Amino acid sequence: MSGKPRLTYLNGRGRMEPIRWLLAAAGVEFEEVYLETKEQYDKLIKDGFLLFQQVPLVEIDGMKMVQTRAILSYIAGKYNLYGKDLKERALIDMYVEGIADLMQMILMFPFSPPDAKEKNIDSIKERATNRYFPVFEKVLKQHGQDFLVGNKFSWADVQLMEAILAVEEKVPAVLAGFPQLQVFKTKMSNMPTIKKFLQPGSPRKPPPDAHYVETVLKVFKK
Amino acid sequence: MAGKPKLHYTKGRGKMESIRWLLAAAGVEFEEEFIETKEDLEKLRNDGFLLFQQVPMVEIDGMRMVQTRAIQSYIAAKYNLYGKDLKERAWIDMYVEGTTDLMGMIKHLPFEPPDTKEKNLALIIERATTRYFPVYEKALKDHGQDYLVGNKFSWADIHLLEAILTTEECKPDVLSAFPLLQAFKERISNIPTIKKFLQPGSQRKPPTDEKSVAAVRKIFSI
């Protein structure tokens, strides 16, 4: 299977969005197949394409890769976005795992009942401002470099950028107390591959809406 | 901080157990400091030892590592349990993510209210026997080798054994339809480091009982 990586998922962010971000940031063009019906999904399973019967699925370098983290790690390793040695990789892993925990709250948000939504936004704001953003603010302040790890652009920077923008969609002034992160956000926005991804018409998906939620529930219905 | 790795967690399995398994299988001796009260946890937090205010935390090679996956990835790579190249690593990652999902369901069970527990136990067994175990049975069948990836003992094998034993605690005959996994279980259990870990007196922790659940709820205020 030569050629571009091919992504199979719904036409929305979900668990595939960090993968789109990372490929785009690495300057890698990719194709997408969108799941719109339960039948399409059942067919993928029946054809044996999904190792654990789940998407995301990324066909890359002859493999049908599943499991978001496995896919992200592979891409990061392949495109030199994973640090120069084991210890840098350890830092990158710690940072992306922390960010993934924050992003999980955002991922689940559209599926929470209407009366819980305000409380959930408060939780996201609280965690972002008290647990996660202070860590990265401090890291950037302490070494004074442009990137989180090893003075070199890595998966951790891409993931943090995605998280900042995602939280800002819910809590617009969330970076008010984080001057280093504000500078970081501007710098990342201006990196050519990321700048391109942030422009209209890129593979970046919009925030989940009611239609997206409906499609998720329909496609993955038991 | 030279010397043995030092693990910070409660005295139960939780998210630290997979790390104990991996270190033990790699033949690495480690120390443990148990969090027994809310105050113990607060002290770790106030001392700035927990990057995201959470445990597991493992002091290793001069780092205070957090985030279960990051810690396991580091240990796996350090002790040559992570395959020989990027593609083998991808397979190990995919397999480990699968067993992580399965064990995640089991870990959660003791914390569930009695009315959902039975339903979730049934779901665990269904997932184990129709989604997860068939994948590993097939992998072993397809290549006919002793280990899951690259004909060499790896993190994926250790994690699968842990998942098998943990699921068997839920349903002792759960491997009845999986002859290769039965043979795998015997084979991997007899690896000297693992055999030692499976013996009484090792640092392996017992299944989570009501007393542990109460302690965890108190320490983490959940």
TrEMBL record, chain A:
Enzyme Commission code = 2.5.1.18
Per its UniProt record, what InterPro entries does this chain match?
Glutathione-S-Trfase_C-like (IPR010987), Glutathione-S-Trfase_C_sf (IPR036282), Glutathione_S-Trfase (IPR040079), Glutathione_S-Trfase_N (IPR004045), GST_alpha (IPR003080), GST_C (IPR004046), GST_superfamily (IPR050213), Thioredoxin-like_sf (IPR036249)
All copies of the GST C-terminal domain together span: 85-209
Q: Which SUPFAM superfamilies match?
A: GST C-terminal domain-like, Thioredoxin-like
Please give the CDD domains that the UniProt record associates with this protein: GST_C_Alpha (cd03208)
Q: Which family does it belong to?
A: Belongs to the GST superfamily. Alpha family.
In its UniProt entry, what is this protein called? glutathione transferase
Native source organism of the sequence: Oriolus oriolus
- Cite the source lineage: Eukaryota, Metazoa, Chordata, Craniata, Vertebrata
From TrEMBL, chain B:
Checking InterPro entries in the record gives: Glutathione-S-Trfase_C-like, Glutathione-S-Trfase_C_sf, Glutathione_S-Trfase, Glutathione_S-Trfase_N, GST_alpha, GST_C, GST_superfamily, Thioredoxin-like_sf
Do the record's keywords include Transferase?
yes
Q: Into which EC class is this enzyme placed?
A: transferase
Reaction catalysed by this chain?
RX + glutathione = an S-substituted glutathione + a halide anion + H(+)
State which Enzyme Commission number(s) the record gives: 2.5.1.18
Q: Which keywords appear in this protein's UniProt record, sorted alphabetically?
A: Transferase
Q: Which PROSITE patterns match?
A: GST_CTER, GST_NTER
Annotated GST N-terminal domain ranges read 3-83
* GO molecular function annotations of the record: glutathione transferase activity
* GO biological process terms on file: glutathione metabolic process; xenobiotic metabolic process
Instruction: Give every GST C-terminal domain span.
Output: 85-208
Family from the record? Belongs to the GST superfamily. Alpha family.
Q: Can you say what this protein is called?
A: Glutathione S-transferase
